[in-house]
Amino acid sequence: MNNLFSFLAGLVFGLGLLISGMANPQKVLGFLDITRQWDPSLALVMGGALVVGVMGFRVVGRMSKPLCVASFSLPLKKAVDKPLVVGSLLFGIGWGMAGICPGPALVLLSYGTVKGWVFFASMLAGMGLYEWFVARKRATVP
């Protein structure tokens, strides 16, 4: 049952990306590039997502247990640290350069676009490099 709800949530999310234009790299770049013909329409999408997210966290905060799984899976870490800041910067730089972030990359994979596949492969390589560096760092710390 959990897999069904996960699939449905992913399907709704993907449809939202398609309908809103967030899966279109040109539209995203038009939003991020404020020096040319700026397209502010994605600000409404992000604002709507923020409202839904805040409401979701408020509802979850009032629930004693989730409806479909044994326990909630919420972030426990609340501190702003160096890995969070560096990761956020890398995410923003990548999003600004390509006009794609991980969610829309998965949507673009379904289209079979070269740009989508290159981005996805690069994203996986970056994740692998991060895991490799973290493992190396742990191995050298006494």
UniProtKB/TrEMBL annotation:
It comes from the Bacteria. Keywords: Membrane, Transmembrane, Transmembrane helix. The chain crosses the membrane at residues 41-60, 84-111, 117-135. This is YeeE/YedE family protein. The keyword Membrane applies.
